[in-house]
Write a structure and sequence with these properties.
Number of strands: 2
Strand content: under 5%
CATH class of the largest domain: Mainly Alpha
Number of helices: 17
Structural class: mainly alpha
CATH architecture of the largest domain: Orthogonal Bundle
Number of domains: 3
Largest sheet: 2 strands, antiparallel
Oligomer: single chain
Strand order of the largest sheet: 1-2
Order of helices and strands: HHHHHHHHHHEEHHHHHHH
Length: 428
């Protein structure tokens, strides 16, 4: 009896030790499990982003001019909540924006973002919304942290300048093309030093007049100083109707404070104004640059640079198929942005010279217009001679199989009946 009690006590002590060991290991196990779940969510979010978001926001999240803003950008992580006055954190804002969409056009961006959540009639479940937000938020790891060094004391800005800065960083879209002053610009010139440049850009006009004209009549002067040397003509023509007079005056006041830094642009690079400022009238034009490019050049470049990975017809080889390109809002814009920016996390490099690649704008345009024209090209292509040949019919094989299926039970029944019947006697 004593021996049995001792064994039971030892078993209980061993069980207690095992439970203590498991309890000690549990926090680390839970942390590892949570990390694995987060990684799986980011991976799932990457697939969802490429199929649902890249067509507007760009394959690398850098935005597409005229279509949608950048998400893989310091401004999204450091300023967006303050710009929109959102009281929660960035994850809650990102999930809410994906779920409910953006039902109206904002700023320079022409695409209306749909509501993606099933709760609002969209296609994504709540877990997919969270996964998509996780993928977008992981870009913050590659964003340089904001400079926390104490800035030199500056005189307090006037209320007009503060209001103008809020307009510039607000939803009218300045930041999407020009970037934060001093960042080098995106598809428009860097606004750092704009006051200094404007003062000598147009003979007979002051810096204030030049800046105001550039906002109200942007086609009057196409500036240089962009990453592609000559800036594309993407600036909207309707700011005279979209901006209240007080906001316009405040924006000009803010830009006049930006007299340091920025590119050095000789005055001769700017062409003279085509109309004086007082007569400037906003003329609405599409913000998106229409698809353009040399298809023959694009076909040669595709065969040389793209076909080894994506296949001669985009069917996929070492890299994935290009079929998903045609699900995007604007296939030409998506292909153009994906080639220039690359796709992070996979083997698709950035081909644009501004991103360190080998192709210039003309070559990127050519490949994009070649790929984007595949659907029309293939619909119009004549059928191959063997395409009209009828496929061999499987009907005879189907009838033979049916006959065998019906004959099998009949033969089996006949065999059983023969076994039951007695063999006939032979009469002597």
């Amino acid at each position: 009896m004593l021996k049995q009690l001792s064994l039971i006590l030892l078993a209980l002590l061993a069980l207690a030790a095992l439970l203590l060991a498991l309890a000690w290991r549990e926090p680390a196990r839970m942390a590892d499990r949570a990390a694995a779940i987060d990684a799986a969510a980011v991976e799932n979010g990457a697939h969802l982003y490429r199929s649902h978001c890249a067509g507007c926001h760009g394959a690398a999240g850098l935005g597409i001019p005229g279509l949608a803003p950048a998400l893989n950008h310091p401004d999204y992580f450091q300023r967006r909540l303050a710009e929109v006055g959102y009281p929660g954190d960035l994850r809650a804002y990102t999930e809410a924006a994906i779920a409910a969409g953006r039902p109206v056009n904002q700023g320079q961006y022409g695409a209306i973002m749909p509501a993606w959540s099933q709760a609002y009639g969209g296609a994504l479940r709540p877990d997919e919304i969270r996964a998509l937000a996780s993928f977008i938020l992981q870009w913050e790891q590659g964003i340089a942290p904001a400079d926390v060094a104490p800035a030199p004391a500056q005189p307090a800005a006037s209320a007009a300048v503060q209001r103008g800065k809020a307009v510039f960083f607000g939803p009218i879209g300045c930041l999407g093309c020009h970037g934060e002053p001093g960042s080098g610009g995106v598809s428009g010139p860097d606004m750092a030093g704009i006051a200094r440049r404007a003062a000598s850009q147009m003979p007979g006009l002051s810096a204030e007049q030049v800046i105001r004209q550039s906002i109200l009549a942007p086609g009057a002067l196409i500036s240089a100083g962009c990453r592609s040397a000559t800036c594309p003509d993407l600036m909207p023509r309707d700011y005279s109707t979209r901006l209240h007079q007080a906001d316009l005056d405040a924006l000009v006041a803010y830009l006049l404070t930006l007299d340091e830094g920025g590119p050095v642009i000789p005055p001769s690079e700017a062409r003279p104004a085509s109309a004086p400022l007082p007569g400037a009238v906003a003329t609405p034009v599409p913000a998106l640059r229409p698809p353009a490019g040399d298809r023959a050049l694009g076909k040669r470049l595709y065969a040389q640079e793209c076909a080894p990975c994506h296949g001669p017809n985009g069917e996929g080889a070492w890299a994935g198929s290009l079929a998903s390109v045609f699900n995007s809002v604007e296939p030409w814009q998506y292909v153009r942005a994906a080639m220039e920016q690359g796709i992070p996390g996979v083997t698709m490099p950035a081909w644009g010279q501004r991103a360190g690649g080998a192709l210039d704008d003309q070559q990127l345009d050519a490949i994009a217009v070649y790929i984007a024209g595949w659907p029309e090209e293939r619909v119009a292509a004549p059928a191959r001679p063997d395409a009209a040949r009828p496929a061999p019919s499987l009907a005879p094989l189907g009838l033979l199989g049916l006959a065998m299926l019906l004959a099998g039970p009949a033969l089996l029944a006949a065999a059983r009946r023969e076994q039951k019947e007695p063999a006939p006697r032979l009469e002597e």
